[in-house]
Amino acid sequence: MVDNPAAWRKASDVNWQALVDFTLKGVKHMRKDEGGAGGTIINVSSVAGLCRFSFMPIYCGSKAAVLHFSQSISSGSFYAKTGVRVLTICFGSTLTPLLDGLENRIWDESTVNELQTAVRIPQKVESASAAVLKIFKEGPNGSIWLSNDDKPAQDITPEKMKDQFVSEGKTFLVTGGASGLGARYVETFVKQGAKGVAILDVQVENGKKLAERLSKTYTSNVIFVECDVANEKEADEAFKIVLQQFKRLDVIINNAGIMVDNAASWRKASDVNWQGLVDFTMKGVKHMRKDEGGAGGTIINVSSIAGICRFPFLPIYCGSKAAVLHFSQSISGGSFYANTGVRVLTVCFGPTLTPLLDGLEKRVWDKSTANELKTVASYHQKAESAAEAVLKIFKEGPSGSIWLSSDDKPAQDITPVVSEAFADQYASEEKTFLVTGGASGLGAHYVESFVKQGAKGVAILDVQVDNGKKLAERLSKSYTSKVIFVKCDVANEKEAGEAFKIVLKEFKQLDVVINNAGIMMDNAATWRKASNVNWQGLVDFTMKGVKHMRKDEGGAGGTIINVSSIAGICRFPFMPIYCATKAAVIHFSQSISGGSFYAKTGVRVLTVCFGPTLTPLLDGLEKRVWDETMANDLETVARYHQK
């Protein structure tokens, strides 16, 4: 467990390549289809392969690679053919010498404070040993197990965990739940088997009737608590009553809202739409957070299309809903979910048929803008569509995500669209770029794209000298950008160091590094070289980029784009090593960019996963699989390749 500059390469070779090597040796010896007797391989990953520890991003990446490799190689017909079980165990902090002096082995000394908050009381070695024994006795092929906190090993295979966000057996609190959309959510989750639902509202008669009707019809415990969410004292009392009744809350839906911008009511509306929502979010986080003894949970904050668009007749309402959007993304950022186990999701509804729209022309801030109401939306979706959207979001939404529900269409994750709205600062014009593997294929397309976008300079790094020189020469003649080619094998530490120096000498400052270089080869003769390019080369240039760009050490900030693949998300049994290196890229990128990294350094780390794409990387792929008997599986993966 070493991420510091002097030792990370050696650590990565031990943690990753050696594990792959002995797995392949084991499979070759044990496989029944080649005369072996079958057997079991247990690969040791870590909780670091599941969580993101910003102080150990390379270790995290290698352990994520172990996880994905093990699942990829064991998938499909592997076990049926070979009789070899491949199991994975992820240990939490355990009392071994591996933890001694860890603060001296992190990649960046400035992350040491995050180390102190992440490492909890370690479990005993005996607990870890008992876990391995349990896994060996009980583990089905391809399963992933967690051993943590001296508890019995738990099967956390994704298929086993897919039901963690079901409504059944969960307790809900819905503000503004007595009528309109809130009442729809209440009824939806009751029908889905919720254990209990608390309706909070100022509409006493409606709330009591709804609670009584649903309690009679379904097995859920549905209660009504009178509460004005804008009133701090009432909110405190209501929350206490709900906890007294249910003991534990799993989900809070901050739905209460008023759409009024006129002079008489906008303050009250703002208190409900904004302060009430913040208050119940904070109450929920405090109750649910795992790092303070809670059980985790979900908070769904209801924003609006008005938080994304600009409606001149309702500027205050628009502002409060934009605040909800930005608050939800801000609080859920960094290592929040990893630390607390609390998901924060946001839904933006388009115009929906509820009483909120009745007589809206009387509630605008300025009567002269009332006519503009007619131009906004000619179609209003049904309330049922909005309720279905909230259910979908609850089941599928990753923490921090933003969803749009409009026009009776299925809810759509619009997180990237909203994020892009804040990204004008990242124009290509006058920026300097370094692209590894930039002489051909996708890399050459990136180079040309950024040159056309007005890049000040682009450095192409590749081993393909002829292609690289020709591309640099052609683009330099056709555009004003300065395009240079530097021969570089990214897997060669010495060459990488020299190439980076040459680029900095030429451009003085680098704004963007795109780690694109990659080889798709899992066969016995070349997998080590491919792994060095796909993983270690990428880590090396990421670290070089961070060191040069980081604002806290005199740099100007910048962006690093790491190219992963759909293979880092899916499991392709014919390419388990490639799959694992790409999973490592994803986890490394998310780990290094976690916590306060961006705030301190000003360096964005982004990851892109491509599906099958028409490049030379796919040519003759059947000859590059790890096991020729798996070549037939290639045909089942992708019939369409994007341009």
Folded structure, characterized:
This protein is an alpha/beta fold and 643 residues long. The chain has 20 helices and 18 strands. The strands form three sheets. It has an eight-stranded mixed sheet with strand order 7-6-5-8-9-10-11-12, with helices on both faces. Strands 15-14-13-16-17-18 form a six-stranded parallel sheet, with helices on both faces. Its EC number is 1.1.1.141, 1.1.1.232.
Keywords:
alpha/beta; 6-stranded parallel beta sheet; globular; 8-stranded mixed beta sheet; 643 residues
The major pleated sheet works out as:
8 strands, mixed
Helix content: 40-55%
Query: Unreliable runs, pLDDT <50, ≥5 residues?
Result: none
Shape: globular
Question: In percent, how much strand structure appears in the residues?
Answer: 15-25%
Number of helices: 20
Number of strands: 18
Rg computed from alpha carbons, rounded to a whole number of angstroms = 27 Å
Main-sheet strand order equals 7-6-5-8-9-10-11-12
Distance between the termini: 40 Å
Structural class: alpha/beta
Q: Give the rounded overall mean pLDDT.
A: 85
